[in-house]
């Protein structure tokens, strides 16, 4: 098992490299780069979409649409600060590199060099500074990551609390009207996108058109620090209720069917028939024998389900409910073309996903020692 874990850990490196390479290449073809964003902000136009002329790797000041009236020195300084250009001095120049010196000149930095430099910094976990925020990328990630993880954990826990009892009930009453109509509800829940269900909840319960029971945005109230401990807990749960329900809507459907099928598979095995033949009560058979074996695959899938919820719904849900999480941070950074934040959040998301995938495999081995990934790999 140690060799399998080591191989999985080593596989993280090329996988992350591929993720970063593909996304970095895509950004080279996206119109309206970061310098265009700065030009639009300086001229009070809000964003660069009305001034699109090229990707974020433009290097000449005259190439930027909408830059009329801005001094070329300003644009040149932006290119130097953002890494799209560098000052190169002739051999023998002893002074500090300066664009004003006759021996020095500005030259564009190619995409390959910028990508290599970025990877070199990421190996040291140096993500640099945000271009449009007064904070480092690490500080922004550390500030928003707990929000995303908290929502993911609560959503996964809620899905398990609903799915396991419902799945067991459906397995025991397989083929009955209860099983039929609950299956219909599950199919409908699975078909509803999380963001659409979030909009529905806001419309119904957050003052959209009907009742104003839950808050519309934020993770806590403005007076959170003034509340008692019990009041803080109640306020926190009050705020996360709708986001957590929205993120759990599709997850519990899959988990319920998995629980039901797992129980049905175990109920038909020989040891269950033997236990019943000995005169054990149905409850004793179900929860004393079947439950332990049927729950192996369900419990082992906890890390994988957490990963699916984090990647599947966090960005849209955090944006809809104005929650300052990692998903929303990455989305805002992508809109602003804040590449240090874009690739920093992408790197963290990718690393978390790969690590959680390894933890999921370890959970399978922990709950069922019969599983041997080492033999399967061989």
From TrEMBL:
GO terms for biological process: microcin transport; transmembrane transport. It comes from the Bacteria. The chain crosses the membrane at residues 151-168, 180-206, 236-259, 294-321, 341-367. PROSITE patterns: ABC_TM1 (PS50928). SUPFAM superfamilies: MetI-like. Keywords: Cell membrane, Membrane, Transmembrane, Transmembrane helix, Transport. The keyword Transmembrane helix applies. Its main location: membrane. This is Microcin C transport system permease protein.
């Amino acid at each position: 098992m140690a060799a399998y874990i080591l191989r999985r850990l080593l596989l993280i490196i090329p996988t992350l490299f591929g993720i970063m390479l593909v996304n970095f290449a895509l950004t080279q073809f996206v119109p309206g780069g970061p310098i265009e964003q700065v030009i639009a902000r300086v001229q009070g136009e809000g964003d660069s979409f009305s001034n699109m002329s090229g990707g974020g790797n433009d290097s000449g000041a005259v190439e930027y649409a909408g830059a009329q009236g801005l001094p070329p020195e300003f644009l040149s300084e932006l290119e130097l600060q953002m890494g799209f250009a560098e000052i190169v001095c002739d051999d023998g120049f002893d002074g500090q590199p300066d664009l004003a010196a006759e021996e020095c000149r500005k030259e564009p930095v190619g995409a390959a060099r910028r990508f290599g430099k970025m990877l070199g910094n990421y190996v040291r976990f140096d993500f640099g500074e945000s271009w449009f925020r007064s904070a480092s990328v690490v500080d922004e990630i550390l500030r928003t990551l707990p929000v995303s993880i908290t929502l993911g954990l609560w959503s996964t826990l809620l899905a398990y609390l609903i799915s396991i009892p419902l799945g067991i009930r459906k397995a025991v009453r397989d083929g009955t009207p209860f099983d039929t109509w609950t299956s219909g509800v599950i199919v409908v829940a699975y078909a509803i996108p999380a963001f659409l269900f979030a909009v529905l909840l806001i419309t119904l319960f957050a003052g959209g058109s009907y009742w104003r029971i839950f808050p519309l945005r934020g993770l806590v109230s403005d007076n959170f620090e003034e509340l008692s401990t019990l009041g803080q807990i109640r306020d926190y749960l009050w705020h996360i209720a709708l986001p957590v329900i929205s993120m759990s809507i599709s997850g519990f459907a899959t988990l319920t069917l998995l629980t039901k099928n797992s129980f049905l598979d175990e109920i038909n095995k020989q040891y269950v028939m033997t236990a019943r033949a000995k005169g054990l009560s149905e409850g004793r058979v179900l929860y004393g024998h079947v439950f332990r074996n049927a729950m192996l695959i369900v419990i082992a899938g906890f890390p994988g389900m957490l990963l699916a919820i984090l990647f599947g719904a966090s960005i849209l849900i955090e944006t809809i409910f104005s929650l300052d999480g990692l998903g929303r941070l990455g989305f805002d950074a992508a809109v602003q073309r804040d590449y240090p934040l874009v690739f920093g959040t992408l790197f963290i998301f990718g690393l978390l996903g790969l690590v959680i995938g390894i933890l999921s495999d370890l959970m399978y081995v922990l709950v069922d020692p019969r599983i041997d990934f080492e033999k399967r790999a061989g």
